[in-house]
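Recap from last week: sequence in, structure out.
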Amino acid sequence: MDAEKLREGIIFRIAYVDDPTSTSFSTARDIHFRTDGGVMLYPEAAISLWQRIAALPTAEQMRCHTPHYAIHLNFGAGVFYTAAICFECNNISVSSSGDYSWQTFDGQSEAAQSILAEFKARVPDDDTET
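Predicted C-alpha cells:
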C-alpha cells in the first residue's frame, strides 16, 4: 500500500448494520452498514492504522459481528479496502475491491485495545440519535 496513491482514508462509526441502501458499505455479501461520524486521515496515518489492524493477534471467533467502527481506504480505479471491526466478537469483515473475507483477532489484546482507543478518540460516540 503506497500512501502517495491513497485518495481517501476514513475511519467512522457504524450507525446501522444490515441496512442495504444505496449509501451503505458492505464488507460481506450479507452485511451492510451505514456510517456516522466519519473522519478523514492523512494517507500515512490511514495506512499505518490499517497495518496495525491486519497485524492484530488472532483469537477464537465468536458470532455476533455487530461492528461499531470501520476503516475505508480508497486508492481509486476500483481499488479499495474496507474493514468493519467488532471488538466484542473478535471479528473483522473485510472487503478488498469487492472480494470478501474474515479475520479473527483478540479484541482484549493490548494492540486491539489501543486501536479501539484511537477509534474512540477520533470518532467519539456521543450517544445522540441521528
